[in-house]
Amino acid sequence: MLGGLEIHPAIVHFPIALTAVGALFAVLYLLMRLEWIRWFAPVLLSLALLGAVAAYFSGESAKDRAEKLGVPEAAIDQHEETGIWGLGVTGLACLLSWATHVRRRGVLISAAVAVVAAGLFLWNGHLGGQLVFVHGAGKVSAPAASGAPRTR
């Protein structure tokens, strides 16, 4: 939480989208081998990895709030574990994409790992959505009332 503002829901969309688009460009480069496509996957996956690290740490602060709201610990743990796996696989995809894009060898493995990373983050996004919409992790509590009704 940053000054009372929950930032995890805002941050998580970046690694999900960047990993998915990075994986798409990894597959496009695998299929087309066009020079202008070559740099997209490494750059996008690098940005996704940075976003995933930020999402992990913001999720750690959101976890306490979700537990206080009565969200089942097993659901929170599953979301966290999938996020850690996604973070690790995205790191591997990032490294492989940088290692293979210059020599153009191993692009198939790099693209496959990027697709797995995207799948993990998409699944984790689904799990996070369940935390919010099924278990109520996104509940916003009203500010403490002072006793008198608020006027505009």
Tag the structure with descriptive keywords.
152 residues, mainly alpha
Describe it.
The protein contains five helices and no strands. The chain has 152 residues and is an all-alpha fold. Helix 2 (13-32) runs antiparallel to helix 3, helix 2 runs antiparallel to helix 5 (107-133) and helix 4 runs antiparallel to helix 5 (107-133). The chain starts with 7 loop residues before the first helix and ends in a 19-residue tail after the last helix. The model has no long low-confidence stretch (mean pLDDT 88).
Topology diagram in text:
Elements: H1 8-11, H2 13-32, H3 40-68, H4 73-101, H5 107-133
Summarize the structure.
This protein is mostly helical and 152 residues long. The protein has helices at 8-11, 13-32, 40-68, 73-101, 107-133.
As a percent range, the share of helical residues equals over 70%
H/E element order: HHHHH
Total beta strand runs: 0
Major pleated sheet? none
Secondary structure class reads mainly alpha
SS summary, helix count:
5
**What's the average pLDDT?**
88
Low-pLDDT parts are none
Counting copies of identical and different chains, the oligomeric state is: single chain
Shape: elongated
Radius of gyration: 19 Å
- Cα(first) to Cα(last) distance is 28 Å
What is the percentage of strand-forming residues?
under 5%
